[in-house]
Design a protein that fits this description.
There is one protein chain. This protein has helices at about 5-55, 65, 75-80, 85-90, 110-120, 130-135, 145-160; strands at about 130, 160-165, 170. With about 180 residues, it is mostly helical. A hairpin with a 2-residue loop joins strand 2 and strand 3. Helix 6 (about 130-135) crosses helix 7 (about 145-160). About 15% of the residues are buried.
Length: about 180
């Protein structure tokens, strides 16, 4: 008959082996997660860059490419503007935030994000994630909806309306306050 101490040692050895196996698997999953997150950030950056390149003319009336010293196109020289496809005309524009600019210049979706974050500031609550925003807006918290909100929030960050104090957490940028968005 085996001793109680021997049986306990066998069980302890089995548990230790299981812990080691799980730690190895956790390390492997963490490494895969780091690679996936890096790839995701690269794609998000690519989307942001494409959005900047395709962005409409800024408030000064200059195309960002034209502001960088590129030669004007034939249409620009002749004063004619090329025909813009209907789909491009309906795309929401997010102007760069500046002192005195009201939220009303933004589309309803962007205004809703700013209003939710203004409420958080007013209630002295912290930043919101896009998943939390989706829940606040009564949306299904599914990847497609969350990523759509993330895209809008990132665009607002790039244009100075929002700040991202921690990755994936959004709040109003310094100076953006008040019911109209002007400070």
């Amino acid at each position: 008959m085996p001793s109680v101490v021997g049986l306990l040692e066998q069980r302890e050895l089995g548990a230790r082996r299981r812990v080691c196996e799980l730690r190895e698997e956790a390390d492997r999953v963490q490494a895969e997660l780091a690679v996936a997150e890096r790839e995701w950030r690269e794609w998000a950056t690519a989307c942001s860059r494409v959005g900047e390149v395709l962005a409409p003319v800024d408030e000064s009336g200059q195309d960002p490419a034209g502001a960088e010293g590129t030669a004007p196109t034939a249409e620009e020289q002749s004063g004619k503007t090329p025909q813009v496809p209907e789909a491009a005309k309906t795309k929401s524009q997010v102007p760069m935030w500046r002192e005195g600019l009201a939220r009303s210049v933004l589309s309803a979706d962007y205004q809703r994000i700013l209003t939710a974050l203004a409420d958080r500031v007013r209630l002295r609550q912290g930043p919101l994630t896009c998943q939390e925003m989706a829940a606040v807006f009564g949306m299904d918290v599914v990847p497609a909806r969350v990523e759509a909100l993330r895209s809008k929030a990132k665009r607002l960050v790039a244009r100075g309306w929002l700040a991202e104090p921690a990755p994936g957490r959004f709040t109003l940028a310094a100076g953006v306050a008040g019911p109209g968005g002007a400070s």
